[in-house]
Design goal:
about 575 residues; alpha+beta; Beta-Lactamase; Helix Hairpins; 4 domains; five-stranded antiparallel β-sheet; 15 helices
């Protein structure tokens, strides 16, 4: 209980994240390395293709403007001022190539790297021709190349960005040299061409740095997202596999979520809609707690006769206040109580048994010697026999009590009932010299696996089977050992031919030192129930439909991996 409270703050945050978590678009783990000369430079594929589409849209708009403005009446003398024919062919080619690139990009007909490189290279070449047709460097059209260089740094990056800057600088310089050689323009502008080249390299470097930083931020965000996802999955696993049930509801008592233990404790296979579907008493207790927060504990009695502690807690979130209901089986408390009780009882019984055994041994020995005296009368011999009989009985009681002092903590392990019961029955009949036909063993067809300390299970079965042989009238028919499943719980039933125990005695059946036999100690069933509760199992007695005595041992399902807090 204390450890559960220590984890409540962590689990509360996890539950808040689980409640408020929204569906995010699928994220691909694919990473594109655009430039073959770059080491480690990569961007997510989804973002890379999106950037490429944005740049394609810019190209389509630019090419369309070139064509529209050139043929419109408002066309300035700048576009195609030097060579209108070259401008016409270049702008039309620019538009056609952009459309074809759009088809390749949207249908992914080519790889990302190839398509991005083709877009940047064709941009540099065609815009250089358009610049020449519009009047050369002095026309100002060379500034459009800066956009292409920046796009190259963002789309591809690495050394390829420097390559594009160098290619654009050489294209501008070559255009200026060609114009000077052909005397195309009245004046040359090598200075402008040089400044454009310097600007290209600067823009390329800056865009590369920007792209690199963006990539690092994206990688960090992706890493944090994966970490958060792992933590959420881990927290969800912990919550789902707690032995304590957890139910999240709102003020209207609409259940938002519930872990597997909660459904198991309330014996439901599917998540109910409202608290009232679980128990009307739980719904009323929740309303009472909302009115009086001090009343946060309630004992819930379910139709299957199990008792569950229920505790209410507020669970505030950013948008709404939810409420957490913690369900804990009484068996968990019983296990902790049993462990502490057995430790204390063991120390006490060990000392008492030691003090009683020494004088008892002397009494037994003296009684035995007295019974061997030939001068004793018949009445005195009878008294000596009584001394011997009751000395043996008291010694049996001491042996049973010493078993409590030697009790160890439960070391549970997975036990498959079918092979275990087969092996146990063979050993039991051999040790007690009983015919194997005295028992009938049945179990389900599927493999049944329970979580139990095998030593404790064997001791419980020994007590129950010995009682069945002693009081269950085995001469009337075989004793039945039946393994079966009830929902997610696996049980073993020991059914004998006895006439049953009256209701008056059933209420005291598992109390220590209670017995209806003159030779019994009254500790066998008490110890068996103690061992069962120590393993979070349940030992009960009931009458079958044909009024036969049946002891049923219900065990933990080993397939339900639960975290014990």
């Amino acid at each position: 209980m204390l450890r559960l409270r220590a984890l409540l703050s962590i689990l509360t945050k996890s539950l808040q994240n689980a409640i408020l978590k929204t569906n995010m678009p699928p994220n691909t783990n694919e990473t594109i390395f655009p430039c073959p000369f770059s080491k480690g430079y990569g961007i997510p594929a989804q973002q890379a293709w999106l950037l490429l589409k944005v740049f394609l849209g810019y190209r389509l708009v630019l090419a369309g403007l070139f064509v529209i403005l050139f043929y419109s009446e408002t066309n300035s003398s700048l576009l195609g001022a030097y060579d209108s024919k070259l401008f016409t062919y270049s702008s039309q080619s620019y538009l056609i190539i952009s459309i074809l690139s759009g088809i390749c990009i949207f249908w992914r007909l080519t790889s990302y790297t190839t398509q991005a490189q083709l877009l940047i290279i064709t941009d540099i070449l065609i815009l250089t021709l358009i610049m020449h047709a519009s009047g050369g460097v002095n026309s100002g059209m060379g500034a459009l190349l800066a956009v292409s260089i920046a796009a190259g740094g963002l789309l591809i990056g690495g050394r390829c960005a420097m390559f594009f800057a160098a290619l654009a600088s050489l294209a501008v310089l070559a255009e200026q040299i060609f114009a000077d050689y052909m005397h195309s323009f009245n004046s040359t502008s090598y200075a402008n061409a040089g400044m454009l080249g310097a600007a290209f390299f600067t823009i390329s470097l800056l865009s590369y740095i920007l792209a690199k930083r963006s990539e690092q931020i994206l990688q960090l965000a992706d890493q944090q997202k994966r970490t958060i996802t792992k933590l959420e999955d881990l927290n969800k696993y912990i919550i789902q596999h707690l032995q304590s049930g957890i139910i999240i509801t709102n003020k209207q008592q609409t259940i938002q979520m519930a872990n597997e233990s909660a459904l198991r404790l309330v014996n439901l296979a599917v998540l109910p809609v409202n608290l009232g579907d679980i128990s009307s008493y739980l719904s009323q207790a929740f309303q009472t707690w909302l009115a009086d927060p001090e009343q946060n504990l309630v004992l819930l009695q379910l139709p299957n006769q199990s008792q569950i502690h229920s505790r209410f807690m507020p669970l505030p979130t950013e948008t709404e206040v939810f409420y957490m209901i913690i369900l804990e089986d009484i068996a968990l408390y019983n296990q902790q109580v049993q462990q502490s009780k057995l430790v204390s009882l063991g120390r006490l019984t060990a000392s008492i048994a030691h003090e009683i055994r020494n004088p008892l041994g002397a009494i037994s020995h003296a009684g035995q010697l007295l019974s061997e005296n030939p001068l004793l009368s018949v009445q005195d011999k009878r008294l000596a026999e009584i001394i011997q009989t009751h000395s043996v009985r008291v010694n049996h009681i001491i042996e049973d009590i010493l078993q409590l002092s030697r009790r160890t903590d439960s070391r549970r392990e997975k036990v498959y009932l079918k092979p275990w019961l087969d092996n146990y029955l063979k050993n039991f009949t051999l040790e007690h010299s009983v015919e194997i036909d005295a028992f009938t063993l049945s179990y389900p067809a599927e493999a049944v696996c329970v979580l139990m300390d095998t030593g404790h299970l064997r001791q419980i079965m020994d007590n129950l089977c010995r009682n069945a042989l002693k009081y269950g009238k085995p001469e009337l028919g075989p004793i039945i050992l039946r393994a079966f499943s009830v929902q997610d719980t696996h049980c073993i039933a020991i059914i004998d031919n006895g006439s049953g125990i009256s209701n008056e005695y059933q209420n005291h059946l598992f109390e220590p030192f209670f017995t209806t036999s003159s030779s019994g100690t009254g500790l066998g069933l008490y110890i068996s129930r103690e061992l069962a509760e120590l393993n979070q199992a349940k030992l009960s007695y009931y009458l079958t439909d044909d009024n036969r005595s049946c002891f049923r041992l219900c065990l933990l399902n080993a397939e339900q991996t639960l975290i014990d807090l």
